Amino acid sequence: MDAFFASVEQLTRPTLAGRPVLVGGLGGRGVVAGASYESRVFGARSAMPMHQARRLVGATAVVLPPRGAVYRVASQRVFDTVRARIPVLEQLSFDEAFGEPAELAGATAGQVEAFCARLRAAVRAETGLIASVGAGSGKQIAKIGSGLAKPDGVRVLRPDQEPVLLDGLPVRKLWGIGPVAEERLRRLGIETVGQFAALDEAEAADVLGPTVGPGLHRLARGIDDRPVAERAEAKQISSESTFPADLVTLDQLREAVPSIAEDAHRRLLRDGRGARTVTVKLKRSDMSTLTRSATLPYATAEPATLVGTALRLLLDPAEIGGVRLLGVGFSGLSDVQQESLFPDLDRAELADGDVAAPAPAAAGDWRIGDDVAHPDFGHGWVQGAGHGVVTVRFETRATGPGPARTLGAADPGLRRADPLDSLAW
Known about the structure:
Layout: H1 4-12, E1 21-24, E2 32-35, H2 37-40, H3 50-57, E3 62-64, H4 68-83, E4 89-93, E5 96-99, H5 109-127, E6 133-135, H6 139-149, E7 154-156, H7 162-168, H8 179-187, H9 193-197, H10 201-208, H11 213-220, E8 236-247, H12 250-271, E9 275-284, E10 289-300, H13 303-312, H14 317-320, E11 323-331, H15 343-352, E12 371-374, E13 378-386, E14 389-393, E15 404-408, E16 415-416
Parallel strand pairs: 1-3, 6-7
Antiparallel strand pairs: 1-2, 4-5, 8-11, 9-10, 9-11, 12-13, 12-16, 13-14, 14-15
Helix pairs in contact: 4-5, 10-11, 12-13, 13-15
Protein name: DNA polymerase IV
Catalytic activity: DNA(n) + a 2'-deoxyribonucleoside 5'-triphosphate = DNA(n+1) + diphosphate
GO molecular function: damaged DNA binding; DNA-directed DNA polymerase activity; magnesium ion binding
């Protein structure tokens, strides 16, 4: 799927069609979870700090918090449509899956392209969303093809095209090569997939390890016989980082948490569920490991709540010794989610690490991106709020672009609404 999170926002909030949309954390340390193609022309992209993306796009940027439940339902509708034509799918995330249609065994490139075009048309008709499709002899080539097909296209790679395509690609494009492996290869002067493929298998194992090295080397040579198979849902989503030098103060740990937690949070968003339990893992200089967990009263994908909880779980290196590895994990994953009742308190904790006492949220405490409903105007979303008023754009996927109305923040008719109502399916 193309720019999935931002595309779903543009679908359910039709006024945003054609506008540069950024989805992600709104706080000072927020990270972009999704960027529309209109924002990418300015250089914005996923995983970029939100403040940097906003600076690149400028005043026209529309910045919205993620709505995981909406993305999950939209994703389910997309892949229900695909499964009607390809029964077995290996779904990698909200917006990406592999399929191996039996009817295409022995098909020509033209027949494959026609099938892909029909599949894209079906997804567009059923969901209103745009999909790009790549096809090739194996998963690796198909994934590369889908990237080349974006936005809004089909790319079928014939067997005779594959070696030339692979040889010239940056080695990081090889599925499974991350920043650490890329750096190891770069130090040896290996920067392209072709250069990596030119190693023998023993050399690949020596550089990247005997477990993953040979498998990645086979992919670099265009050998990919992995079957398409349904995947079980993850029970935990986590991220961790090993530091060049031990962290020896609590402030250093606090500085390290947000980027690690936000990496795990991006994966959580792509999974589509919320988490009830947050776990922090601390590996000390002597290689011993300490873990601490906290369970929330509800599952959430609210980044401020999850990162704030991780910060509360930290232990002071002055008491436990230097920390060489820090990990943040989310578990207790559930489709049923609830937003934080005290988002401002969670954000304050991100800033200074203090834990404030909860206080009731004000009735008019509206945030940009909140889903709301009004008996006179229907479903809408908050475009702006402050100084006792709130501006709401009343629209859904089914209505097309809707009117904006400015109401009193304490208007008794204005209430929070189920974000799923914006899909109007």
